[in-house]
C-alpha cells in the first residue's frame, strides 16, 4: 500500500456514505406514492388518531379490529409506515407514532397540506407531463374532462376534495388576513375592492375590522353566487356589492364598479400569467380613488422562513400547472416586483412573514 | 434561573432539532406526490438524462427549449426537484443532478422501481383505503373496472405499464435465477415443473443450464399463450410442456401433469393467501417423483441486506393489496416456514441473498 492509498481512504468512506444515503433517498422517492397512500389509508381508517391517542404501543391486530379491516391490511400498513419513519415498533410489541407521524396527525398545517395533496391533487398529478407539455391543467380530467380551469368548478368538486381545498386555502389565509388587517389598521378605507374575493372570507374580516367600510367583491359569477349564499356573511351582505368578472375574457374591465380607496388582491395575481397580471393591475389602477392604494399579498418562493416552507411552496406551485390553470405559480419576489414596475406601480411599504408564508405590498401609481 | 433550567437546556435543543426534522420529514411525505410526479415529468421529458450527461450546469431555459416545453414548466420542475434534493443549482447558475438524481437516472434497480411505481401503481394506489377495507384489488379499476386480479391481464396492460411491469419483474428475477441455477447445479432434474412459470423466463435459463432436462410450465391459460408466443423460447419449445391451471378455481390439481424431480416456484406463493399457499404445496407434493424436491424462492421482508431494501419490499407489498389480488404480500421468514410446516414439508437447504433480495429453500416431504 502506498501513501496515496492511505490518503484516499477517508474520502472513499465519505463517498460511500454519501452514495448509500443517496441510494436510500432515491428509493424513498421511487416508492413515495406507496408510502403516501399507506399514510392516507391509515389516516382515513382512524389508525393514525388511534396510535396518537394511545399511551402504550398498539398491536396491528387491535388496529385491524377497531377499523373493521383484515389483520393482513393493518399489518401491511404498519410495516410500510414503520419503514418510512411514520410509526415505530414491531408486529410483536405494537406500534406508536413517531414525531413525523405526530406532525402528520396533529400539526394543523401539515394535515391541511397532506389532505390537499391526497384529496385534490393526487390523481390529477398523474398528468403532470402532459400539463407541462401542453400548458393546460391536464390533471383536471381526474374530476371532469370538460373543465378548462378549476376556478369556476370549486363548487362542483367532490365533497372530500372541496373540503380539503378550502381547508388548505383557509389555513394559510386566515392567519395572513388577520395580520394584514393589523398592518392596514391606519388605512381603513371608505370603500375597498376585494379582487378575487371568492366566498368573502377576507371581506368578512375586513368589514368587521372596519365598521364604516363598504366592500365590492370582484370575482367570477360562480364565486359571487357562492359568496351571496355564504352564511358567514349574514348581517354583512348590505355592505357588500358584487362585481362579476372573468379576467380571461376579451376586454375585461372594472368600468361600472365605481372607485375604491383600497384595492385588495390576496393570492390572486399568482393565478395568471405575467402579461395577464400586468393587465389586471393596469385595470385596477384606473379604479383607484385619489390617494388610493393597491394592496397585494402573496407567498413568495424566495421569502420563506426555512427550507421546509420553500419545499412546500415549490411543490404546491405544481397545483397551478396541473389542476388550476396550467400556466401560473407562486412568485419569486423579483418576478412580482417586475410586474408592479410594468404596471406603473411603486411599492410604498412591504411586510414579509405575515401569517405562515405571505408578504404584503402596498402600492400606488407612479407619478 | 435555577439549576434545573440549566440542566434542561441541552434536552430542549435536542428536542427542537428533532421536532424540526420531523416537521420537514412530514412535509416531504405530505407533498411527496408532487415531488414524485415532478421527477416523472423531468424523466419523461428527457431532462434527467440531459442533466446527467452535462459537464456543466444547464439552465432551465435550455432544458425547456430542448424538451419543447415552456420555460415556466421547466423552471417549476427544477425548483421542486431542487427543494427535494434531486437536482442542485439555481435558475441563474443552472442545474445538475445530485447523487440522488443520479441514482434515479442511472441505477438500474432504482429506475425499475421508479417506473413500476409511476406506470403500474400510481393511479391505482389512490384506492388503497378501499382495497384494505374490501380485501379486493380496488386499484385495478384504474386500468379496467372489470378486472378481478391483474394476473390474467398482464397482456392487456397499456404498453407503458406492461413494459414497466416486466422490467421490474425481470430486474429482480434475472439475477436471482442465475444464482439459483448455480445453487441447484448438482440437482439437474430429468423433468421439472415451473409453477407460475409465466412467459418462461426461468424455464429458458434452466433448459439452457440443464441440456438434458424437460420442463412443464404450469400457469394460467393466458400466461401459457404468452409463453408459447415468446420469441425467446424459440428452439426450446419442443422441451416444454404446458399445463394450464387456475389455482383459485375449485378442485385445481396437477392430476395429468405427470411427475417431476424438481418443482420450482419463484415469487409464486406470495400471490396467494396462507390457506391457498398450503393447498398448492400439498398438490405439488403429490406430483413429486421419488426423492424429488420442491424449490421455493421468495424475497423475505426480514431477510434483506439493509433498511433501503426492507423499505422497498414493504412498499411494493402494497402492489399486491391494491393492484394484484387484494390479499397477498411478500413473506416474513416465519410465515413462510409455517406454511411449509402446514404442508408437511421440511427444509433441507436454505440460501439467503440470491440476486438482490431472494432466499431459496429446498424442501422435501416429511416422512
TrEMBL record, chains A, B:
What's any GO biological process attached to this entry?
Answer: methylation
Q: What top-level branch of life does the organism fall under?
A: Bacteria
One annotated GO molecular function: O-methyltransferase activity
Q: Which UniProt keywords apply?
A: Methyltransferase, S-adenosyl-L-methionine, Transferase
Matching entries from PROSITE patterns are given as: SAM_OMT_II (PS51683)
O-methyltransferase C-terminal domain residues are 181-344
Does the keyword field hold Membrane?
no
Keyword S-adenosyl-L-methionine appears in the UniProt entry? yes
Name the Pfam families for this protein.
Methyltransf_2 (PF00891)
Q: Which InterPro entries match?
A: COMT-like (IPR016461), COMT_C (IPR001077), SAM-dependent_MTases_sf (IPR029063), WH-like_DNA-bd_sf (IPR036388), WH_DNA-bd_sf (IPR036390)
The entry's protein name is: Methyltransferase domain protein
Source organism per UniProt: Sutterella parvirubra YIT 11816
